[in-house]
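Supplementary Methods, section 5.1.

A reviewer requested that the exact input to the structure prediction be made available. We therefore reproduce it here, unchanged from the version used in the analyses.
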Amino acid sequence: MLRHRRALPAWLAHPLRWQRLPVPWAAVARGALCVGPLLGAGIATGHPAPGVLTAVGAMLAGVNDRPGTRRTGIVHIGLPALASTLGTLMGASLRAADAGWWFVPALAAVAFVSGAGSVAGPVRSTAAMQMLAATVLGAGMPLPGAPWAKALYVLAGCLWLLLLRLVLRTPRRSGGPLSGERAAVATVFDALADALAAVGGSGAEPARRRLTAAMDRADEALRLRRLTSRLLRRPARPEELLLAERFAAATALCEASVALLWEARPLPSRVAESPRRFAEALRTGRPPGRLSAPENSSAGRGAFDHALLDAAVAFARERPLPRPAAGADTPPARTARARGFLSPVAREYGLRVAVCIGASAAVALLLRAEHWYWLPATVTFLVKPDLGPLFSRTVNRFAGTAAGVLVFAAAGLVFPGSWWPALVAGAAGALLPFATRHFALQTGAITLMVLSFVYVGGAPRAAGERIVDTSIACAIVLVVGHLPHLADPRRRIGQRVTEALRSTERFLRYVLESQPAGDAAEAVGPARTGAVAARRLALRRDAYRTLAQARAAAETAAAEFRAARAADPDWLTIVTAVERIVDAATACAIRLDRGARRPSPEEAERLCRALAAMTDALEDPRRRPTGTPPPALRPVPDCATLTDVAAELERLREYAGAH
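The structure derived from this sequence is encoded token-by-token as follows.
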């Protein structure tokens, strides 16, 4: 009799996961020209300390060398570079003052600030982590020089990679100064085509989430472009305005596609072909050609064809439309986040980082290790939740460090002379952009570079000590990271989930209470109608953006190793239910635009109150909505999605009441 194979638990299977990503060849070339050559220049000139420090800066910047436009690269590399410079200055100043045991409270204080600041967004999270890592390295690395000089050397290494980022870029066929932004918007149309091809299948919701991620990247690229124009005090160029109009057309198409996804009726292949034609038109500069014929078989299909026609007009336009006058209704800015520096989740994460760093620094000083800074430096990267579940991080960290030590030791046996560490560092720098696929591979590349720095800095036999320090750091993080009051997922993940719920409530309330863009549009005029539609799109985008962040946190929590899970809600179930509420509300908005019956103010308020009550229940379990009546609505044939919203709310209400 055949036995069924039991699936591995999520916490045990996560260390084996491998991301399949395209090879960033331009980033690989930049990595090969950064760390190794800078370290080699220090060896060749007889000044190893500046070479090591500039190579450290290039290594820290190389971790942030991700795909994107030039402007996103400047932000993603530049902000952490400034944080690394500040951290090096603080750490080198502590070393110059010979702080002794004062290293422990000083590093713990920096760790608290770093941890608390990490909840403000991905770029600031990376900057905060690198500020802490640079502080530890600056305090521990026995290199000569004044603190300000060390900080400038690190900044020079970061700027060298940033310069290469501006020069060595992936060639694109057309687009001129807007080539990166055009490619980002084209990716939105490609993701839209993939989502339309998945309608009616099991991959529909994952395709919609990939579409949301593509829209977020394109939105970031265009926002940075507008910010640059404002900083330079120059008006937007016509081609920038045209691209913004085409991105707005893509956003409207995406909203209509959500209604098609909700209807779950498979579409002809020609429907998905139209967005691909728009993507090719953006990349080549040629017209999109023939599009799919309109069909009014459903409300979602009618809205999609209408948005497709608007997109075709936007692509045929050679000059942008006149911009609205100052003071006119504009899409709202991003919703303010409840992620203040002293918010509960910020305090919890900051305290955990501070305890881990303080404990590791104290243990290192007690052991009187020559390279005591390796312990807190390792903990810095292990304690960061953005890099995956805690158990997975520790396993991959140890495996990557062991592999890096073995490769470095083998290189020392094979290559003669004093120049070979620069060669190893150069190869590891080239590997680093590719190594983002797996944390162990990334750890191995960083270990090779760090050992090269230490070897050039005057410690040729430090490889074995690196494995011992990594083992101790992994033990410290595993113990501290699972302390009950420092690892409560309700505070860490629940904050993001409740934030997504509040964004969803704002979107749902606007859909149910705003003026429709259908029969009443003539009474309010096209300008007001366009402003309503733009605000609705912006609120929907904000809801999906916060949901994507909540899903990432929930997936990480699902793969954490915890002995008792019964008391914690199933965060992935909650996020999935809220995603379906946003999808249903979007489909409802499309139906209302097409003339469906609008809910009464009482019905709309009842739905919004039910969602707010569930948010309060998840935020504070003492406020369970057990007595809240189900927000049921009478079935409405021409706007069935409104009933769907109520049904999804009722499922979520029952779940929130049970937990």
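The CA atoms of residues 384 and 524 lie 51 Å apart. These observations are discussed further in the main text.
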